[in-house]
Amino acid sequence: MTRFGKWFVALGIGLCALAVASPAFAQDATAVAKASRDAWVALAAGIGLGIAAFGGALGQGRMAAAAMDSIGRNPGASGKIFTPMLLGLAFIEAMVIYALIIAFILSGKIGV
Questions:
Q1: What is the distance between the alpha carbons of residues 59 and 88, in angstroms, rounded to a whole number?
Q2: What's the pTM value of the predicted model, to 2 decimals?
Q3: Which CATH number fits domain 29-108: 3.30.450.40, 2.60.40.740, 1.20.20.10, 3.50.30.20?
């Protein structure tokens, strides 16, 4: 057998081996799609919760600073400022808790 013939036979055998072995090691397309979806869901939950926590902390800080500035300028109005400030802080915190609940719901979708 010539040198070219040996290479041709080796190439044919190698291609046949790859053609037979490829389906055996292939992953299911739905498994790959689910893994990709799970990665995006986890990323969305983490980033969403981080943005909500950052925004809530920023809003609460600004509200408390404005209330303390108002009380410092007019100490007699502290009773009228304190109650709406606490109510506003509770609403801001509730929005962050809603984001936490949504993140928990999204993380429950991972692996399903």
A1: 9
A2: 0.66
A3: 1.20.20.10
